[in-house]
Amino acid sequence: MQAKALGESLKDTKFDYIFTSDLKRAHWTSQQILKNQADPKPPLVVSELLREQHFGEGEQKPFSDGSRWVRQPGRVFKFPGGESLTDVRKRADQAVEQFIEPILRECRGRPATSKHVAVVAHGIFNSEFLGALMARRKMNAPLEWCYRGMTNTGWTKAEVGYADEANIETTTRISTNPSGPISPSSAPSSPPSSTPNPDNLEPLVIKVLCSDVTDHLQGVVRQKGGLGSQSYDEKQEDIRKFFGGGGGK
User: Fold this and answer.
1) What backbone phi and psi angles, to 5 degrees, belong to 79?
2) CB proximity list for 70: less than 8 A, separation 6 or greater
3) How far is CA 116 from CA 12, 100, 143, in A?
4) What's the CA gap between 158 and 206, in Å, rounded?
5) Which residues fall in a compositionally biased region of kind Low complexity (predicted)?
6) Which domains does the chain carry?
7) pLDDT digits (tens, 9 = 90+) for 2-42
8) Binding site members for substrate
9) Between the CA atoms of 32, 127, 220 and 42, what dihedral angle is there, to the nearest 10 degrees?
């Protein structure tokens, strides 16, 4: 219901590209957005790069203070066989370079509204994806980071362009405060790394216009179980093989 409501609410926004994780919840949501797009519909690009953080042996385990499965603070902690936040950030950097960079080059010199792109992913990955973009700001300026994840199907909108062509000031503060419960997979324990990208890509200007927009959820009954009601996606188990050189399915 929530994904369908989101798709209907975005029907008047003409997207040029939709990029989505191949995991069930995000993929289903992206299909609802695509379904409500006018013809000709934009391409739907499905990628394992946009998957949620993999918790290894911690997958499907109860996350609580009284459990042995407690995520430790910091960006390098990982459960056995899983990913750290730093690992997720590397995927986010790769996604920006592979999917967003070509669009930025195509739109150089055009208004920020010349192309509309939807990225449909997951809580922690969304945080790292925003962090990957913000780290590309000119001179890597300080950033006040208060990102606490987003409500299920909540969305954030930003204008992105190259710094040498933009006439807007970049956002220096990211803040979200989800209206719903925060699941362990949607609340990063620390801000994303501000280390400049290693490929010396051109600096960007990013203006965050709104964050965690949930107007489409008014009158929608929350599914039983809240944010964690979606069944576990066995595809998530393939992520170690995929990024370890063993191939993914």
Assistant:
1) -75, 155
2) 63, 64
3) 12, 11, 25
4) 7
5) 178-188
6) 1-58+83-221 (3.40.50.1240)
7) 999 999 999 999 999 999 999 999 999 999 999 999 999 99
8) 25
9) -20
